[in-house]
Amino acid sequence: MYIAVVGMTMVVLPLISWGANLLFFRGGAPGITLLEVWFVFWAFGVRLLLAGIRQVLQPAFTAQHIFEISDEKSHVVVQELGFANISLGVVGVLSLFMRDWILPASILGCIFYGLAGINHIFKKKNRTEWIAMVSDLYASLALLSIFVAVILTK
After folding, report:
1. How far is it, in rounded angstroms, from Cα 85 to Cα 63?
2. Helix axis angle, 47-57 relative to 75-94, nearest 10°?
3. How many CB atoms lie within 10 A of CB 89?
4. Residue 119: CB partners within 8 Å, gap ≥ 6?
5. Range of weakest confidence among 9-18, 22-31, 96-105
6. From CA 104, how far away is CA 110, in angstroms rounded?
7. What is the DSSP string of 60-116?
8. Are 34 and 6 in contact (CB under 8 A)?
9. How many beta carbons lie within 10 A of that of residue 15, not counting itself?
10. What CA–CA distances, in Å, run from 148 to 95, 127, 153?
11. Is pLDDT at 30 greater than 80 in this prediction?
12. Number of domains forming the structure of the chain
């Protein structure tokens, strides 16, 4: 389930939304700007919102399967991470409706995912943490690339 959510929110849904937007709403924003809109919405907004909700409601998953911590005392810290992820995710989701939030959300996502991905690099990893590391670094680089492309096209 975890890998499906990551794959859908990081690749499949942003590309489907971008393609549909290009196909059905011609003459709008440039293609790269639309890609940023949908990537920020799905990969930053929806993914972190879903992760945050799961971390708040089921902290054991993140503690045990990503960080390999079995102590239930860690659940409080995981839930705090969940609150942060929910907050960031809401910014990403609302950026679809508040277009001025897209570039700041891109920066937030780039920094958050970049630091999280780098943090995963230096740890012994299980399969789930490998997925988290690769997807975090991918998201950070994608958000940075899109941000730079949008700045260069202005």
Report:
1. 15
2. 150
3. 21
4. none
5. 22-31
6. 10
7. HHIIIIIS----GGGHHHHHHHHHHHHHHHHHHHHTTT-GGGHHHHHHHHHHHHHHH
8. no
9. 14
10. 18, 32, 9
11. no
12. 1
Structure-model confidence comparison of residues 66 and 58, the more confident one: 58
Tokens standing for 12? 């499949």
Query: Looking at residue 26, what DSSP letter applies?
Result: T
Tokens of 136: 């975090």
Contacts 24+ apart (CB under 8 A), 12-21: 13/38, 13/42, 13/46, 14/38, 14/39, 14/41, 14/42, 14/43, 17/41, 17/42
Q: What is the pLDDT of residues 74-110, one digit of tens each?
A: 999 999 999 999 999 999 999 999 988 988 999 999 9
Alpha-carbon span 29 to 12, nearest angstrom: 21
Phi-psi region of 71 (alpha: psi -120 to 50; beta: other; left: phi over 0): beta
Q: pTM for the full model?
A: 0.88
Query: What does the buried/exposed string (b/e) look like for 26-42 if buried means 16 or more CB atoms within 10 Å of the residue's CB?
Result: eeeeeebbbbbbbbbbb
Query: Structural domain of residue 100, as residue ranges?
Result: 2-153
